[in-house]
Design a protein that fits this description.
There is one protein chain. It is built from 4 helices and 18 strands. It is an alpha+beta fold. The protein is globular and about 50 Å long.
Length: 282
């Protein structure tokens, strides 16, 4: 089975072209191929499939085999693949995902996609739609006890669930301890991606993330979008910010008019290879 390893700010996935390859059990394959010691090594697996409603369809699986509805860094890499492999050779494309069709603008130089701007849609702020247990309404600066600490959290969905908390020093914060516990807290029936953010100023925020299916990753696109929304809801930043992640920077704007969250960042192909998986090639 042919595959392409791609990354966006260090958030790396194995990409398989569904036009030429057939995967019989994507969840099981995601676990094997994502293993950083015995596999290719990645935060998960993304299948690039044909679509009846868009230029291509993205199917995303975390490193633990669970299906994800959306991946902000992953969709930028899908856009790069779609353009450079002649699936849709145009500067504006659409990608179908499990949480709807997304529009993307490609910034191309000498035939290569360097950056991609994604309309990530509108954030879902109602608690029951995150989902999170408790009374109806928004979750903004609400107390949540995790292990031995109580955090002020803001919860929302960007097609997948996020829980954002602001800390004084994100670089030294114990993300593994508290992120791992919060990701599977009883108030989040489907689990949650956990963002720890430090506000630098009104236009800059530092962030680390613990993803529910992959652990701490170098970057999370939907997480950066969630941090932007949470920063605005808590009156901490302007609506357009640069989010500094361990793998690099993302520019994110929560539009005031249509409420859409717009994310812009890079995408890069690392290498291609052949995975010796029996019975999966079409």
């Amino acid at each position: 089975m042919r595959f392409t390893k791609m990354e966006a700010l260090g958030n790396d996935y194995v990409y398989v072209d569904g036009r030429t390859e057939r995967v019989t059990d994507a969840s099981a394959l995601a676990v094997r191929i994502s293993d950083r010691h015995f596999g290719v090594g990645a935060d998960g697996l993304i299948l690039i499939m044909p679509s009846d409603v868009a230029d291509a369809r993205m199917e995303m699986y975390n490193a633990d085999g669970t299906r994800g509805k959306m991946c902000g860094n992953g969709i930028r890499c899908v856009a790069k693949y779609v353009y450079e492999h002649d699936i849709a050779r145009k500067d504006e494309i659409t990608i179908e995902t499990d949480c709807g069709t997304r529009r993307l603008q490609l910034f191309v130089s000498h035939g290569e996609v360097e950056r991609v701007r994604v309309d990530m849609g509108t954030p879902e702020l109602e608690r029951t739609h995150v989902p999170m247990t408790g009374p109806a309404g928004r979750v903004v600066g609400e107390d949540l006890t995790v292990l031995d600490r109580t955090f002020k959290v803001t919860a929302l969905s960007m097609g997948n669930p996020h829980c954002v908390t602001f800390v004084d020093d994100v670089d030294t914060f114990d993300v593994a301890r508290y992120g791992g516990a919060a990701a599977h807290h009883r108030v989040f029936p489907e689990g949650v991606n956990v963002e720890f953010a430090e506000v630098v100023d009104a236009r800059h925020v530092k962030m680390r993330v613990w993803e529910r299916g992959s652990g701490e990753t170098l970057a999370c696109g939907t997480g950066a979008c969630a941090v932007c929304v949470a920063s605005v809801l808590n009156g901490l930043t302007e609506r357009g910010i640069t989010v500094h992640l361990r793998g690099g920077d993302l520019d994110v704007t929560w539009s005031e008019g249509d409420d859409a969250v717009i994310m812009t960042g890079p995408a890069r192909e690392v290498f291609t290879g052949e995975w010796p998986e029996p019975g999966v090639r079409a």
